[in-house]
């Protein structure tokens, strides 16, 4: 890893060639700025590589020569960072999706005006619940009335907003995920995003190989969605 970072540092600074500096400008970036920008560029390059697993960044800033970092920025996705921002452990954080903020604050018992949303990333992000059309179910309420033994495939990142969104959708119909289990169902925590081969194959396996004919699969494309 160290060799990898040193190689990137050399490439980013010199593009493979030693360059003589030109005349200094009065408003040139000073050494602390340059060093910080080098590390930020290295981090940006690393998180963009397919084989690099550590893709969430925490950026910490401090005055040069001072021990304590005073500004922290998190490029995460979990609604639990709302509490970190509210209690001052993080100054700026990203959560996914943006609409999770209100629900997250409510669940944490934090006043809605305690935090400010300053920007959104305009990504097309949806949540879907799907079962086979042959069962004639077109709403969560009908699903609850039928009480089938559902197998629910959830992402194995348990602090992601997908789980509370599903809990809220079921709560609107008067049930919980625990209730689904009492009907003879189960929760599956599967690795990866639904569009990736391993996860999509797992979801199809749940539909085609289970004894039970019923399956609710968040995010599965190309199936009949239950409006929530």
Number of folding domains? 3
Structural class: alpha/beta
**Kindly, what is the distance between the CA atoms of the first and last residues, rounded to a whole number of angstroms?**
45 Å
| Beta-strand percent range | 5-15%
Radius of gyration: 23 Å
β-strand number: 8
Q: Sheet bearing the most strands, described? A: 3 strands, mixed
Order of helices and strands: HHEEHEHEHEHHEHEE
Task: Name the strands of the widest sheet in spatial order.
Answer: 1-2-3
Give the tags:
228 residues, alpha/beta, 3 domains, three-stranded parallel sheet, 8 strands, 36% helix, disordered C terminus
Give the helix/strand layout.
Layout: H1 2-14, H2 31-47, E1 58-61, E2 71-74, H3 81-86, E3 92-93, H4 100-108, E4 129-130, H5 140-146, E5 151-155, H6 162-172, H7 177-182, E6 186-190, H8 197-209, E7 215-216, E8 225-226
Parallel strand pairs: 2-3, 5-6, 5-7
Antiparallel strand pairs: 1-2, 4-8
Can you describe this structure?
The radius of gyration is 23 Å and the shape is elongated. It has helices at 2-14, 31-47, 81-86, 100-108, 140-146, 162-172, 177-182, 197-209; strands at 58-61, 71-74, 92-93, 129-130, 151-155, 186-190, 215-216, 225-226. It folds into 3 domains: 1-54; 56-125, no CATH class; 129-226. The chain is built from 8 helices and 8 strands, in the order H-H-E-E-H-E-H-E-H-E-H-H-E-H-E-E. The two termini are 45 Å apart. The model is unreliable at 209-228 (pLDDT under 50). The protein is of the alpha/beta class and 228 residues long. The strands form 3 sheets. Strands 1-2-3 form a 3-stranded mixed β-sheet.
């Amino acid at each position: 890893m160290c060799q990898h970072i040193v190689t990137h540092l050399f490439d980013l600074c010199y593009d493979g060639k030693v360059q003589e500096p030109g005349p200094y400008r009065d408003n040139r970036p000073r050494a602390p700025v340059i060093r910080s920008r080098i590390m930020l560029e290295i981090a940006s390059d690393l998180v963009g590589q397919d084989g690099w697993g550590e893709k969430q960044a925490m950026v910490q800033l401090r005055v040069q020569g001072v021990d304590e970092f005073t500004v922290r920025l998190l490029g995460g996705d979990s609604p639990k960072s709302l509490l970190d921002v509210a209690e001052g452990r993080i100054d700026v954080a990203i959560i996914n999706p943006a609409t999770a903020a209100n629900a997250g604050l409510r669940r944490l018992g934090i006043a809605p005006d305690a935090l400010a949303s300053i920007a959104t990333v305009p990504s097309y992000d949806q949540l879907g619940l799907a079962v086979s059309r042959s069962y004639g179910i077109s709403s969560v309420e009908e699903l609850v009335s039928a009480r089938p033994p559902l197998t629910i495939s959830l992402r194995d990142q348990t602090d992601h907003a997908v789980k509370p969104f599903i809990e809220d959708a079921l709560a609107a119909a008067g049930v919980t995920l625990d209730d689904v289990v009492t009907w003879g169902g189960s929760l599956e925590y599967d690795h990866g995003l639904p569009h990736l081969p391993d996860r999509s194959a797992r979801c199809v396996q749940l539909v085609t190989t289970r004894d039970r004919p019923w399956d609710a699969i968040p995010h599965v494309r190309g199936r009949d969605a239950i409006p929530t």
